[in-house]
Specification:
There is one protein chain. With 465 residues, the chain is of the alpha+beta class. The protein folds into two domains: 255 residues, no CATH class; 184 residues, no CATH class. It contains 13 helices and 17 strands. The protein has a three-stranded antiparallel beta sheet, with no helix packed on it. A two-stranded parallel sheet has the order 1-13. A two-stranded antiparallel sheet has the order 2-5. Strand 11 and strand 12 form a beta hairpin. Helix 9 packs across helix 13. It starts with 6 loop residues before the first helix and ends with a helix.
Length: 465
C-alpha cells in the first residue's frame, strides 16, 4: 500500500516493514526513486543546513531528544570542570565541541590550511603521533592534543607545509597536486626527533547518513566483499573486522572502517577531554600538569551521550539533485565508464533489525531502506601515495574505506570549502580522483584519458549526489 510520510507512516515504520512509499518534495510532487538518497530519511534541503536537518520521521519525543543532542553536539564546552552541563573541556583538547570540527554536521575548514598548523582555540583536525614501530610515546597518547585551557600547556602544535606540482591532461588542461608535510613543534614534554616520529593528520568527516551507515546490512557487505574481485582492473575490496571489548564487529565507520559505532564516547574523551562512563580518566592522565584535574568525576552522562548518538543517527540525507539533467546523465555514464562504481557502490540496503544506540534506544525507522551512499564500505589498497604509515583496526596503512559520496556536492555550500581525502590534500574532486592509486588507479587513468567535456560531466554528476 502506497502512503505519505504521516503519523501512519511513523506507526508502520516501527514494525520495520518494507512498504513502498510515496515521499513528497516541498513542491508537493512525488520524489523520483533516483532522488531518494536515503529512502525515508531523505531531505530536500540544499542550504547551509543540508547536513543538519532531521529526517522527516523525527517528531514528538524523538524530536525533543534530537534537539537536545544537537545542542550538546554544537554548544562549546568550557573549562568549568565543576559544572557537568558545560564543563569538562580539557585540560588538553583538540576541539571545544563536536560542532567546532563538524560545523553544521559537515567538515569545518581545518586550521592547518587557514593558519599553517594548529591555529588558536581549536584545530579542526586530528593529529596522530606514533613511533616508527607503531607504539605510543611517553607522556602522549595516539592523538596530539594541540589546544589547552588556561594554565595548562598543549601537548604540542602542528606545523603544516606543502609542495605543489603541476600536471596536464592529454587535451592540455592543467591541474596540480599538493603533497602535505607535517611536523610537531612546541612539545609539552620530551622533544621527539623527526626520524622517530610518524605524524598523520585527518580532517573531519561529513556526518551525512551516519544512521544509515550504522544500520547497513552486514550480510550484504559480506557478499560484496566476496564478489569484489576484479583482477582485470586490479580491484579487490575486503571487509573490515573490528575487535572491541573481546567481541568482533563489522567495521563501517571512520576513514579506515575501523569503528563499529559512532564513537560518541571516544569523541567526547579523546577530542574534548570530557570524561564519561566508558572513558573515566582525563586524557592527560599521567602528565604532571594533570594534577588537580583528575578528581572531577564523570562530566557527561551516558544518557546525554546517547542523545548525541540519536542526533547523528537521525539526521536526514540530502536528496540527489538534477537527476534528469542531460549533463548529469552523461556524467553518470562516465562514472560507470571510469569503473568508479566498482568501489563507490551506488545502492545498498539497511538491515531488518532496528539499530540500537549506546544506551539501548532502538531506531526502527532505519530498517529495510534502499539507500544510495555510493560506497561499498570495504577496504581498498589506495597505493603508496596515500599510505599514511598508520594501520587502524584490521586496515593496513595503505588501505582506506571507500568514502561515501552522498551529499558531497553540497559541502561547499555547508562548509565553504571543497577539501577532499582523509587529510584534505585534494582541493576539489578532480584532484581527489587524480590522487587515486593502487586499486583506484584504473579509475584515475580512465578519467585522465577522457576529454574535458566528459571529465566535467563526471564531476557534475558527483556534485549532484
Amino acid at each position: 500500500m502506497k502512503r505519505l510520510i504521516t503519523a501512519l507512516f511513523l506507526l508502520s515504520a516501527v514494525a520495520c516493514g518494507r512498504e513502498e512509499e510515496i515521499i513528497l518534495k516541498p513542491n508537493g510532487k512525488a520524489a523520483l526513486p533516483a532522488e531518494l538518497s536515503a529512502g525515508n530519511a531523505t531531505v530536500f534541503m540544499t542550504s547551509i543546513r543540508a547536513y543538519d536537518t532531521p529526517a522527516p520521521w523525527v517528531s514528538g519525543a524523538l524530536l525533543d531528544r534530537f534537539l537536545k543532542g544537537d545542542k550538546l553536539y554544537d554548544d562549546p564546552r568550557t573549562s568549568d570542570q565543576g559544572d557537568p552541563t558545560v564543563g569538562g573541556l580539557g585540560p588538553v583538547y583538540a576541539g571545544f565541541s563536536c560542532g567546532s570540527c563538524h560545523n553544521n554536521a559537515g567538515r569545518t575548514y581545518p586550521s592547518m590550511f587557514a593558519d599553517g598548523g594548529s591555529g588558536r582555540g581549536f584545530s579542526s583536525q586530528l593529529v596522530y603521533i606514533l613511533r616508527q614501530n607503531g607504539r605510543f610515546f611517553r607522556q602522549y597518547g595516539r592523538v596530539l592534543h594541540d589546544q589547552s585551557i588556561v594554565g595548562v600547556q598543549a601537548e604540542g602544535k602542528l606545523k603544516y607545509t606543502f609542495e605543489e606540482k603541476e600536471y596536464a591532461f592529454p587535451d592540455g588542461e592543467r591541474y596540480s597536486l599538493v603533497t602535505p608535510h607535517y611536523s610537531i613543534v612546541e612539545w609539552y614534554a620530551d622533544t621527539i626527533r623527526p626520524q622517530e616520529l610518524i605524524v598523520d593528520v585527518h580532517i573531519p568527516l561529513r556526518h551525512v547518513g551516519m544512521g544509515q551507515i550504522m544500520a547497513l546490512d552486514h550480510d550484504e557487505l559480506r557478499r560484496l566483499a566476496a564478489q569484489s574481485n576484479y583482477p582485470e582492473y586490479g580491484i579487490s575490496g575486503r571487509l573490515s573486522i573490528v575487535t572491541e571489548r573481546n567481541r568482533q564487529f563489522v567495521g563501517v565507520g571512520g576513514n579506515k572502517a575501523h569503528h563499529a559505532d559512532l564513537t560518541v564516547e571516544l569523541g567526547f574523551s579523546s577530542d574534548l577531554g570530557v570524561t564519561n562512563d566508558r572513558y573515566p580518566l582525563e586524557i592527560c592522565e599521567g602528565q604532571p600538569q594533570n594534577v588537580g584535574y583528575s578528581h572531577y568525576g564523570i562530566q557527561i552522562s551516558t544518557r546525554d551521550m546517547e542523545d548525541v548518538d540519536l542526533y547523528m543517527s537521525t539526521l536526514g540525507v540530502p536528496a540527489r539533485r538534477n537527476v534528469n539533467n542531460a549533463v548529469v546523465l552523461r556524467g553518470e555514464e562516465n562514472f560507470y565508464r571510469a569503473k568508479c562504481h566498482l568501489c563507490h557502490t551506488p545502492t545498498l540496503h539497511t538491515r531488518q533489525e532496528a539499530p540500537v544506540l549506546l544506551n539501548g534506544t532502538r531506531l526502527p525507522w532505519l530498517c529495510n531502506q534502499t539507500i544510495h551512499p555510493y560506497s561499498d564500505f570495504l577496504l581498498h589498497d589506495m597505493g603508496p601515495e596515500l599510505d599514511n604509515h598508520v594501520p587502524a583496526g584490521s586496515a593496513y596503512s595503505y588501505e582506506w574505506r571507500t568514502t561515501p559520496l552522498w551529499g558531497v556536492g553540497l559541502q561547499e555550500t555547508v562548509n565553504g570549502h571543497t577539501r577532499m581525502l582523509h587529510d584534505g590534500r585534494a582541493r576539489n574532486i578532480t584532484e581527489a580522483i587524480m590522487w587515486h592509486g593502487g586499486e583506484g588507479a584504473v579509475s584515475r587513468e580512465l578519467f585522465h584519458r577522457m576529454g574535458r567535456e566528459d571529465r566535467d560531466a563526471l564531476i557534475t554528476f558527483i556534485n549532484s549526489l
